[in-house]
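step: validate -> pass
step: tokenize input -> pass
step: predict -> running
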Amino acid sequence: MARSAVTLLGFAVLLAVVKLGSSTMCYQCNSQSQAECGDPFKKDKIKLVDCSRDTEVLNFNNQYLRPLVSGFPVNILGAARYCHKIVTNTNTVIRVCMDDNPFALNTTCQMIAKSEAVKHCSVCDKDNCNGAASISASLPLALVALFASYFYLKQ
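step: predict -> pass
step: emit ->
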């Protein structure tokens, strides 16, 4: 009996600690350095980037977006990241992960469009431009499962 209780408790904790999450996958490129990034877009030649990888995304944004839109906060603490396509007045296409308001997705594009250097900006949140499963730990879920298992086994 004790062995099955320990097995049940261990299984409950394992299920609670592992949770499925998702991160947005976007194309990240600039048509000035990669012709395939422009229109027509050749997606098989451009790699997808996990938007949750802060260093890679921030470095790209600082390199290509800061000079384009001076004074605009390219990354906003705590904001969700979505796939954006920006076309400049020189017809350079920039595809990038960028922070945006999940309740009003076009907020970032509306701010960027005020720049005289930008001709077009669009944001994508559809299944065909993002989505990859990832596994991460959840301490609150683990604690809830631990307490629930304890009270269940105590009876």
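step: describe -> The chain has two domains: 1-21+136-155, 25-130.
step: cleanup -> pass
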